[in-house]
Description:
- The structure holds two protein chains of two kinds.
- Chain A folds into three domains: 13-62, no CATH class; 73-118; 122-314, no CATH class.
- Helix content of chain A is 42%, strand content 14%.
- Chain A is built from nine helices and seven strands.
- The longest helix of chain A has 45 residues, at 73-117.
- The radius of gyration of chain A is 47 Å and the shape is rod-shaped.
- By secondary structure, chain B is mainly alpha-helical.
- Chain B is built from eight helices and no strands.
Amino acid sequence: MPHIPDPMRHIPEEELHAYLDQALSRSQCVEIEHHLADCRPCRAERDGIAALRDRTTALLVAAAPRRIRPMPYNQLSAAHLERASRRGRRFRTAAWAASMVMALGLGWGLSQWSASSVPESSEVTAPLIVATVPAGNPVAPVARNPAPARTVSGTPGSTPTAAPLPPRPATSSLTSLGGTASTTEPVLSGLWRTVTWSDTVAPRSEWVPRVEGVPVVQVKMRQDSEGGRPITLVTQQLANGEMISTVEGPATDVAELLSQQSGQSASAELQDMQASPHLPDPTGARPSTGRGAPRTLAIFGSAPSDSLKAFMLRVK
Amino acid sequence: MRDELETLYLTTYAAVVRFLYRKVWDADRAEDLAQEVFVRAMRHRPEKPRAWVFAVAANLARDEARSAIRRRKHLTLLTNEPTQRRQVEPDGEENVEHDEKMEKVRAALAELSQRDREVLLLWDAGLSYPEIAEQSGLAVGAVGTTLARARKRLIEAHDRNELERKRAHAAHS
């Protein structure tokens, strides 16, 4: 509160309010009382403010409930304890629920991590599954050739047909290439032609290499330079949106396509493959692509190699 | 030996109810809120319990005003509770007179600015100038000025309303 140095100065209204409200220090009160003793106008002002103050209090008393019945303090305390106990129970329940959610989340996270980390290389690097058929018939209904399970059979020089073939001795092989391709979109060179499904199947009544039951997105063909059966590339979309491609054609052409697709490591494995007795003579300058020349069926895509193997077995 | 909060409860509960009543204008609700204030005080154990109690009461009253519809639903629920302790009192002559006075004061208080009304109600609840200053955000020196203005305006509004009511009554008769 401001000091009042001048005894002749009248006391401001708000200071008289504060004085009557006992909101001033003791020394301030003494100074005001000295002034009031000598100043009639200030005494009148003080009396007016005191009356105003009393009237205000009287009015506010009317603005109150008729009766106020305080709850006994011990009851209020009991209500507090009960509420604290409820809060504790809620907290424990919430903590239990949170721990369950955390445990489930952790389990799920670990399973996702392990699922994604173990086969990561095979998913990302688009492993290649190659079935090599010694000769022209790529029709390899494995389901009808139960033994050995991972063998695709074929007969050199046979005509492609949709008819089921009798089981044959295992003369072809199924190889997984740990390729380094980073995309399922094949790198194509040469004159490829995109054809419609009806153009592909209807006029020729030929077998088209594909996984049965998976929607075909695109079929591309490249005519064989020597007038033989073309190399066919069928792209299909899996339910998860990933694409897989099945390619069938002369072994050298497929090997070339796959080496472009897979990079060096796959090429090396293809070199190994070519050394196998089912592939063309590695010493030959360029293997024949005409009838009777070895043909290769391959499936590749951005999926775990096990899945691609499974698809390979479904290729008809 | 009573703890500090129990003493505060015994000495301040009625003032808190009055303070709340002048904001919510419902006696039962004012008591409910006052009990809520003290239960919260038991949990928080504030350092300055008296000022804290009125600050929380003001906040509760503000929330109450903001959710008037929800409050009505809650009151309906409370009314239906079997442990309801309150009884409806018959409106005697004394009560009618009390209600009339109360309505006049309510109308006069409604004419004050929010800050003037808050300071006046806090002063009437027994808070000191520094406590009022802390809660209202005013400087301590400004509390006296605000109180002076609030008191004057309350009386003026009340007397003006009373005069108008008398004139209207005379005109009707």
